[in-house]
Amino acid sequence: MNAKALYSIFLFLCTCFTWAQVSFVTKVSRDKIGINEAVEVSFVMNVDGDHLTPPEFTNFQVVGGPMQSFSSSWVNGKSSKTISVGFFIQPTKQGKLTIGSATMTYEGKVYKTQPVTIEVGEPVQRTQPQNPPHRNRTAQSLWDEFFGNPEPQQTPQLPKNFGEGVHVVAHINKKSAYINEPITVEYRLYVSHYNAVNHIQLLNMPKFTNFWNHVIENTQQQVLEGTYKGKEYRYIVLQKGVLLPQKDGDLTIDPMELEMLVETPTGRYDIFGRPEMKRELKKYTSGTHTIKVRPLPIDNQPESFLGAVGSFTLDKQVNKTQVKANEALELTITVKGKGNLQLIDIPKPIAPVALEVYEPQIIDKISNNLSVGMQGSRTYKYTIVPQYKGKYTIEPIEFSYFDIESKTYKTLTTEPTVIDVTEGPDLPTNTIKKNESITPNKFQINHPTLANAKGSAVTWLENIPFITSVILPLLMIPFVVLFAKIKEAKGANTLKNQSRRLNKLVKKYLSTAKKQLGNKEVFYELLEKSLHNYIRAVLHIETKDMSNDKIKEILLDKGIAEETIIDFMKIKANCEMARYAQFTASDQEVDYQLAIQVIQSIDKQLKDNK
Amino acid sequence: MKRIFHIFFCLFLLSVGYAQSTNDKFLQSQKAFNEKEYQVAIDFLKELMEEDPYNEYIHYNLANAYYQLGNVGESIYHYEKTLKINPDFEVAKVNLDFAKKMKVSDIKGNFEISQKQMFYQLFDVLSIRAWAILSIICSVLVLVSFSYYYFSNQIVSKKIGFSLAIAFFVIGLISVFITYHQKNYLTTYEMGIVIPKEVLMKEQPRESSKTKIKIIEGTKVLIQEQSEKWYKVKLVNDSIGWVKQNEIREL
Question: ipTM of the assembly?
Fold first, then answer.
């Protein structure tokens, strides 16, 4: 195959495709116009495309449109349709002007039209015959041509004031309102039965500053019959809306301005008796309106007032009241009525911490009824998830609004909601709650007495020698010990001293006795004295108790040997004998030695026994 | 023994004497209160308070009188003081709630219980006076049981006497510490109450410094730091700033 064949196949395929393909083009009625003329531009497509966006008509002014037209046909079992959107545009300057490309989407693809160029020339002189009412022109010219009758036949004259013309009127239902009170506005174009309008062009759309506005789009423009200032008119509603003033004071509503081609009867009639019409481009305005907005009274404004104005009813519903922990339940609060429904807010329900309340879902069913403003309902749907077992009360919900009719605040309250959570963990703070409920909810009276005040102990503590009182008994411990020691030591000393003194005496007497050896009487006296003192020192007995038997007994008690005792007694007897009997046959030397021997022996035995 | 007896006798006399001198004024204040002469009652109670600054009942009645006069700051201060001294004084808690409701606005929340406060409440099973008396008794008992130990001839009684002495010594020592801790807790401060109607909390301890927030009378603050004429305070909502010392009454 050569390249030519390929090319022709490609072309063929292209055409095939093009047939099935989307066509989207810009068509203009004329491509050469005068600057004062309008041209019709239409964007034509053969499919049902979406999002048709006309180009920005730079250097043009849109004087009419968009006008939609739709046609479909069946040819040989094939359907074809044409959709077009048209505009009347008027150039604003001379020269070669380009109309940009329009876009639309079809099955996800974006299609564009080719730009179109229009040559705009010098203004064209609009002559009367060029643009007279169509049917009049033909009829009259024909009559003139054929019958040469310059004067039209006079038909019965209509009243002069009949069909005064065209009016643009803003109908406002209130001259004064409270803040947030709905006001309805309707812009109407009145046209009398004897007038006609063409090419309506909106010059100024009202901007409702300081108003919250809801403009109702009316897609169908229906011609209605009505009276205005006592006269019959045809009218169309240009725009209507609900306004909520947001500020107090004198608020102005901007005028709506229209420019249109008006046909008015000239007062002359053609041969068929029809009035001759004159065309004029004329501006109409609805005029500025002032509305006096009063602020809502501040006195007696309830705490729960959040700006609702109108008249409402409050409804509360819970889908279940017995749930398990962690099972969601729904609390719906609905405000129904008329007023500024879209601007109202309902206070959040106050629930115990054990119930977790999530952010609400807001459902609006609001219709904008012109006679009352907004009407419908707003619903708050709260999802609540209980966390702990127990019975909980959701506090009553309060909703306040300003009632326009009675000019007072009204408060609506729902019933409290009791939710019983049957299963789930116990609330950790339950016990504390119980205690709280016990405490009386009443201001408590004065305490009647100062007695037993805990805190006064601080003063008391500062006044008493506290630390001294604590330390003093402890300090006394060493004293007790010391005291006991001294006393004991003293007791032991007296006994020892005595025996030491006595021993001294014994030694003294013995040594004196030794000197008196030979002097019989003195010697034995001294010897006896020394023995006597010795016994006193050793046996700790007094002189008066001293008898031989007692001495013997005590000595035996102390475990002294019997021989020593006998020796002692013998010495003692010798001493007595020598003193009282005149007896000479005695050996002083032997007795002295014996006495020393006995004393030493007793000392030794006493020490051994100890 | 005679000496110890003397000490106790003196203590007894002291408490009796104290009770008699104050009772008259107290009764007068009660009478004034009942006759709705709240300012008079306040004057009497204030005199009493000077003699005995830590008597919770004086503070409580004083708070009630201030409450009746609508003095929120003073009222809350004295209720808080009452509860500091006697944390179990339920009646004061109820009235404190009433006083708090009079506040223009309230920052919700509570301060964490400090260590000192925790110990105070723990040891509050006995009053300071009881702890003090316990210390003295323990001290005396140490002496007695030691003497018993020392003079006894038998080994078993010696042992008993010695162990008792040690035990009483330890108990006594602990009681002394607790007594001082409790007293220390009451006589020092960690918190403060805003007394004027409105106080500006500054970012720096300077008059010219930027104002952080306004705090209103009766607000409880935690005193963190002290500089000349200023306190660095913390609110329940953790905001920290400086407030002049004379605008805060230490609790």
Answer: 0.76
